[in-house]
């Protein structure tokens, strides 16, 4: 009996396998994307743009940028700054009235045995952000004990309070500071400036209008050494001396013209020092921003590799000269880097080819 012949059309399969070619293309795209440093985020791109001369040298123009006013977060930031400036102006205007209202309390502290401990404790408590009020306490101390003993009391309370703040933030807020560096670009830039600037930057910041206890919290979370911080805090005590002198000078019932002159000089010096400090910090920020932003991009690349199951430290054939070209584009042109597709090394396709050959064997 004859056995019927069964026809198998299209068998054996053709030598070309379209699915394997698609897998190879996907493997090429994945390798290129993992080997390439991610582009800067919009906030990083904005920071890398060259500033105009007006924005570079005028703090108010940089603060009230019309482009940034369209963002709700920027409006909230400007509202907070305006509120703080209004409070500062009101404090300067009604400073004498505040002192007169608190003078009975200052007289009670001076008459009480061991009453000098009270302002020291108050200064220590007020050293923890977001509390404030060092200036009011210093003026009261100057009014009650005079410039000599008053300055010693304020200096002791300031140093002890700053050391307590430094220890608390150094011990319990380091992880929080690292998270903020990863999320907030401005904080990451300031932290890097403080790390590289060291003692000089610490002194400049403490002589500005930036509240000392806020600067202390940043110093601690950025890893500044305790001795560097302590020396900078001691050298900034003349700021407290000026405040104590204001309290001592306005202790009388009648405010003399000398008192007005001293207050005006103190305010002008504070404004000049603050302007210099902000210009100095901005200059230092411009020096480190490219390095900080590139480091943040490499961290994002490592996370992408880790999510794809690739060793973050593995060399995927990226060219180091490409990074320099990419940085140059951002530095001088402020445009998004769009490199041409490059052929990945053959060695990195071994795994993809083995998968392709395996799929053929299965078929």
From TrEMBL:
The alphabetized UniProt keywords are: Golgi apparatus, Membrane, Transmembrane, Transmembrane helix
User: Which residue positions does the secretion signal occupy?
Assistant: none
What is its membrane topology? Multi-pass membrane protein
Please report a single Pfam family linked to this protein.
Answer: VTT_dom
> Which stretches are transmembrane?
75-94, 115-132, 144-169, 214-237, 264-281
What InterPro entries does the record point to? Golgi_membrane_TVP38/TMEM64, VTT_dom
Q: Which residues form the VTT domain?
A: 134-248
Record carries keyword Transmembrane helix: yes
Q: What is its main location?
A: Golgi
Q: Which GO terms describe its cellular component?
A: Golgi membrane
Its domain of life reads: Eukaryota
* Coiled coil start-end: none
Residue numbers spanned by region Disordered: 1-22, 341-363
The subcellular location is:
Golgi apparatus membrane
Describe the function of this protein. Golgi membrane protein involved in vesicular trafficking and spindle migration.
Family, similarity comment: Belongs to the TVP38/TMEM64 family.
Name of this protein: Golgi apparatus membrane protein TVP38
Native organism:
Pycnoporus cinnabarinus
């Amino acid at each position: 009996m004859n056995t019927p012949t069964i026809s198998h059309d299209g068998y054996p399969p053709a030598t070309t396998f379209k699915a394997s070619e698609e897998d190879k293309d996907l493997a090429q795209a994945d390798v290129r994307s993992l080997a390439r440093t991610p582009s800067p985020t919009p906030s990083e791109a904005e920071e890398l743009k060259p500033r105009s001369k007006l924005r570079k040298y005028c703090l108010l123009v940089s603060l009230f940028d019309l482009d940034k006013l369209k963002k709700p977060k920027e409006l909230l930031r400007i509202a907070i700054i305006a509120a703080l400036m209004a409070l500062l102006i009101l404090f300067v205007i009604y400073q004498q009235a505040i002192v007169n209202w608190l003078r009975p309390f200052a007289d009670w502290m001076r008459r009480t045995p061991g009453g000098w401990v009270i302002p020291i404790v108050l200064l220590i408590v007020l050293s923890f952000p977001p509390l404030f009020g060092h200036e009011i306490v210093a003026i009261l101390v100057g009014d009650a004990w005079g410039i000599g003993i008053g300055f010693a009391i304020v200096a002791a309370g300031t140093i002890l309070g700053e050391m307590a703040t430094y220890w608390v933030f150094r011990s319990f807020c380091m992880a929080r500071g690292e998270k903020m560096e990863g999320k907030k670009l401005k904080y990451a830039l300031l932290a890097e400036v403080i790390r590289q600037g060291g003692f000089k930057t610490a002194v400049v910041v403490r002589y500005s209008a930036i509240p000392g206890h806020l600067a202390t919290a940043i110093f601690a979370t950025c890893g500044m050494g305790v001795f560097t911080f302590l020396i900078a805090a001691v050298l900034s005590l003349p700021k407290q001396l000026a405040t104590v002198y204001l309290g001592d000078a306005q202790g009388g019932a009648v405010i003399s013209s000398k008192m007005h002159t001293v207050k005006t000089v103190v305010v002008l010096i504070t404004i000049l020092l603050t302007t210099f400090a902000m210009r100095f910090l901005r200059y230092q920020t411009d020096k480190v921003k490219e390095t900080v932003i590139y480091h943040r991009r490499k961290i994002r690349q490592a996370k992408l590799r880790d999510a794809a199951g690739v060793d973050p430290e593995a060399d995927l054939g990226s060219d180091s000269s490409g990074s320099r070209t990419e940085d140059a584009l951002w530095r001088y042109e402020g445009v998004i880097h769009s490199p041409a597709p490059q052929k990945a090394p053959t060695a990195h396709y071994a795994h993809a080819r083995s998968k392709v050959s395996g799929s053929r064997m299965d078929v």
